[in-house]
Write a structure and sequence with these properties.
The protein is mainly beta. Helix content is 14%, strand content 43%. It has 2 helices and 13 strands.
Amino acid sequence: MKNYAQNIKYLSFVYLLFNLFLSVGCERKPCDETPIIDTIEIANPAIYKKALTSYSGNDSLTFKSETGAIFTFQGEGLIKGYYNAYEFLEDRCNTKLTHVKGFEGYNFKTNNYNSDIEYYVKISANSLFGADFHIVIHDYDFYRDSELPPIGHSWYLQGLLINGKTYNNVLKIYRNYDPLDKSFLYYSLEAGIIQINFSNGHTLTKE
């Protein structure tokens, strides 16, 4: 009986020792916290940079508000740079990918309004979707994909009457690319930004 009890203790010890070695041998390697980084340039400039042809970058823009106040914005030339877009892979370590993506655009500075206008093309955070065309004012980001349809396409509005002027080939671009958002702007390749409409009723209209 004593030998039987000793054998049980011995077998239990061997079993625990075996599991210890097994757990150590199969222990997962720690995750590498170093992010994977790649750099992606804007591709196919004939398409993705088409929106930049609306301005030279050194233009002087004038807008009138709904109250009749006049505001001016002055371009500062072409701006080029990079921004970081992050993606997490669905793996055990939730690996972080940092895509360093290019952008080009213009910054229109103002001395008599409380926000500048940023106007640029950048590669989308999801590289599958190519590039985005953005107009940013008051942290309102109005954007769409920058592969603009050819002039005369059904996506364009024709005969749009604003401030006594008629505009053709006008795109309606929504804040955050959301057609349900009440903030939007009218834009055309020929006239640039025609009117910016904010959800609070504030407007800026091209003079």
